[in-house]
Design brief:
The chain is built from seven helices and eight strands, in the order βααβαβββαβαβαβα. It is an alpha/beta fold. The chain has a single domain, classed as 5'-nuclease (Rossmann fold). β4 and β5 form a beta hairpin. The longest helix is centred in the first third of the chain and has 11 residues. The N and C termini lie far apart (55 Å). InterPro entries: LabA, NYN.
């Protein structure tokens, strides 16, 4: 499905990809992910979308965002909004769908292949529009989680579905060894 001369772009829905990888029990190594798709074609752009809590002293995602920014990813972020739901639970809202769609539509005339890292069915109209413009679309998500993280309508619309679990050996971060202190040392 990939051709060496393809002009490729990656559109990574950060929270969706994180949730899919977590449901499969592994972490993504973004350096390996980028290298894998550079190998598959001419990588024009690798976008990563995430919402950030601005008022937190420390955000656990900040080191990843900084690393991605310094390592060739185009970061698209916006402040997440905190609110309290009707049951008094603290919730965070930070949907990045519109930003992803706008970037994909703007880049479409210069692409042969778009790779969408998301299982969100809301992206089906985007995939359909890109296809009408002559862009092939691969969607990376998982059917192997319970429930599956890929919306059926998105999987059916895509030219190619890539099972995230099948990429585990290529883009997964090796598990860290847990070291226990030696009581005899």
């Amino acid at each position: 499905m990939f051709y060496k001369d393809d002009r490729l772009a990656l559109f990574i829905d950060g929270s969706n990809l994180y949730a899919a990888a977590k449901s499969l029990g592994f972490d993504i190594d973004y350096k390996l992910l980028r290298q894998e798709f550079e190998r598959r074609g001419k990588l024009i752009r690798a976008y990563y979308y995430t919402a950030l809590l601005e008022n937190e002293d420390y955000s656990p995602i900040r080191p990843l965002v900084d690393w991605l920014h310094y390592n060739g990813f185009s970061m698209v972020t916006k402040p997440a909004r905190e609110y309290t739901d009707a049951l008094g639970r603290r919730k965070v809202k930070g949907n990045m769908d519109v930003e992803l769609v706008v970037n994909a539509m703007e880049l479409a005339p210069r692409l042969d292949h778009a790779v969408l890292f998301s299982g969100d069915g809301d992206f089906r109209p985007l995939v359909e529009s890109l296809q009408r413009q002559g862009v092939r679309v691969s969607v990376v998500s998982t059917m192997r989680s319970q429930p599956p993280m890929i919306a059926d309508e998105l999987r059916r619309q895509a030219d190619n579905f890539i099972e995230l679990d099948a990429l585990r050996e290529v883009i997964g971060r090796p598990p860290r060894e847990v070291t226990t202190p030696n009581p005899e040392a």
